[in-house]
Amino acid sequence: MNWVDQMRKELSVLMFALHPDPHGFMGGGFVRTYEVLKRGRKYNVNYYVIEPRKSFKDVDPEMEYQVFKLPYSLEFYKTLSNLRLVIDALKIGLQVVRKYDIDLLYSPVEVNPSSILPALMYFISKVPWTIMLQFIPVYGVLTAVDKLSKKPISLAGLYGHLRVERKFPMLPSINASLYYLALFKVLTKAPLHLTISRIILNDFKKLLPSIAKRLYVVWPANGIDYDKFKKLPDVPKDFDAVFVSSYHPKKGIWDVLDIWRIVIKKYPSAKLAIMGRLAGSPDLARKMLKILTKKIKHYNLSQNVILVGDLINGFSSQRELWINMKRGKILLYPSKIDAWGLLIGEALACGLPVITWDILPFRDAYGRSSSVIFIPLNDKFSFAMKIVELLSNSEKLEILSRDAINYIRNYHYTWDQVTVSEREGYIKVLESWGKI
């Protein structure tokens, strides 16, 4: 089948999208899912989506896909069990498969339990299935940033990596180890999966080649809708820097406090704004907020670190998040595990230079931007000194801000291109199953 015929072919995809409440900062993975769903019909993909009680369509009723809601939110399922969530999702999935001519079963992320649902559904329905590897769990387990860890293919190896290298508590390490081991086994049960990152593919080639040969890189993997950013209002620069928290501690929430302690030795009145959503679940976010406020007080940063917005639930919309990001002069992004770093692109679109750790996924995605400044991993002093350098040179800051906007204005990756590449990935998967 040639490319034109492929694009004309109608595809029906049953997606298991078990996301947190879709408002404010959802994390790059689910932002990507939302943007692809928005454009699916335009490119002849009919999506049938199983979602928690609050769906993407509740946020944007004009989205053209069919939603099938689980009876509860993800937060409430945690008080029940993941088993109950899996059973409810499979019941709905079976009804959808029986009613509609589904071509592909699909999970847009590899987090628990989304990733196992297509495989389980396959054993019931025999419909081809695949997973998109785009969140941090697999990338974070397979690599300690750019230094390869021991092969995590045994339960003991996984546990040791999580417990020692990533400093997980004991019981979460056991649970996560069992999940990752199951995930790696599940990935070998289908002929092809998708990933947004060439770095993930390279890690699998070195560590788990049996999975690497089953991966297809969807490229471009993420986009920026610059028209949305052009419409944002001008706001005063209230903060010297901003940090947007997202669900995982390795995204830099604790490093940024250590870095800011160094900054204020040079600039005692420097202001850092922390915003976003501290964790995927409100309960965990509340626990993290308590730790965060204690650390701020312990480090004598109460006059220098400002918590902006609702860190439990996040802002009400992405637009509100972006407006608040624009109140800063620089985005600090000391994340150690990321497959792309969509937030970096959004900050550039807001006119903010970005300072981040020098890890391979960021180099791969943003290495051509002069407004993304890479600091050697874990060198907090150099990170802080780069902040000081920029804050003391308003002319350079202005140049970097203009360069950031120009970079995004000329950014070649749009969400339409991402949706087309996603569809091409589905075709590759169906070809691997012998269905095309």
Tally of helical segments: 20
Beta-strand percent range: 5-15%
Helical coverage, percent range: 40-55%
Topology, number of strands: 15
Radius of gyration: 21 Å
Q: CATH architecture of the largest domain, please? A: 3-Layer(aba) Sandwich
Count of distinct structural domains: 2
Which structural class do you get from the secondary structure elements?
Answer: alpha/beta
Could you characterize the architecture of this molecule?
Helix 13 (253-266) links the parallel strand 10 (241-245) and strand 11 (272-276). The protein has helices spanning 3-8, 28-39, 56-59, 74-80, 82-99, 117-125, 136-142, 155-165, 170-187, 198-207, 209-212, 226-230, 253-266, 282-298, 318-325, 342-349, 360-366, 380-391, 394-409, 415-432, and strands at residues 11-16, 45-51, 66-69, 104-107, 129-133, 143-144, 147-148, 193-195, 215-217, 241-245, 272-276, 305-307, 331-333, 354-357, 372-375. Helix 8 packs across helix 9 (170-187). The model is unreliable at 144-150 (pLDDT under 50). The chain is of the alpha/beta class and 436 residues long. It folds into two domains: 3-223 and 414-432, Glycogen Phosphorylase B (Rossmann fold, 3-Layer(aba) Sandwich), CATH 3.40.50.2000; 226-409, Rossmann fold (3-Layer(aba) Sandwich), CATH 3.40.50. The protein has a seven-stranded parallel β-sheet, sandwiched between helices. Strands 10-11-12 form a three-stranded parallel β-sheet, with helices on both faces. Strands 13-14-15 form a three-stranded parallel β-sheet, with helices on both faces. It has 20 helices and 15 strands.
